[in-house]
Amino acid sequence: MKHPIENGKCLCFLCFLCFLFFLCPATNSPWQSNLNIYSFSEDTLKKLRKFRFSSARASTMQAMVFYIDDSYDIKPEDLDAITSIDQLVEELPENKPRFVVLSYPLTLKDGRKSSPLVLVYYLPPTSSQKSRMTYAAAIELFRDKAGVSKLIEVNEEEDFEDIEEKLV
């Protein structure tokens, strides 16, 4: 579909509706401003900081899974330590998106060791449209709070098999 552009702005009806629904304050859209509706508790931020610092020194993969509750609070899942991709795949729900903060130790081509901290945006194809929109609107806020260097979107559990290639 070609968008009719005038003065750098699209004039098509679909873009107009998107503008009204997502940006207009009069619509009271839950997705209009991720800074106003999503929140992190002090406990969540504390756990996230602790994970960032402890995972930097770890010799094995570590992951922490986060979800968004009905009141738009971003919280960590109450799970045991996740130290392998197989364990991570088992813990993720089949029909709900999740944010995963992942630290994966790598040896670079020049021999140096690296443990990049990345955000994995798990978005299964069976998730509802509402949950997809809820998580999509919170990505940048979560990425900022987590202090991650890279974002990787994963749609299928099989996509986790080649995650190491995506990290480099």
UniProtKB/TrEMBL annotation:
PROSITE patterns from the UniProt entry: ADF_H
CDD domains xref list: ADF_GMF-beta_like (cd11283)
Keyword Repressor: no
Cellular component per GO, a single term: actin cortical patch
Keywords, ordered alphabetically: Signal
Domain of life: Eukaryota
The ADF-H domain, residue ranges: 34-168
GO annotation (BP), single: negative regulation of Arp2/3 complex-mediated actin nucleation
Residues in the signal sequence: 1-26
Molecular function GO labels: actin binding; Arp2/3 complex binding
SUPFAM superfamilies referenced in this protein's UniProt entry, alphabetically: Actin depolymerizing proteins
Family note: Belongs to the actin-binding proteins ADF family. GMF subfamily.
Protein name as it appears in the record: Glia maturation factor beta
UniProt source species: Ascoidea rubescens DSM 1968
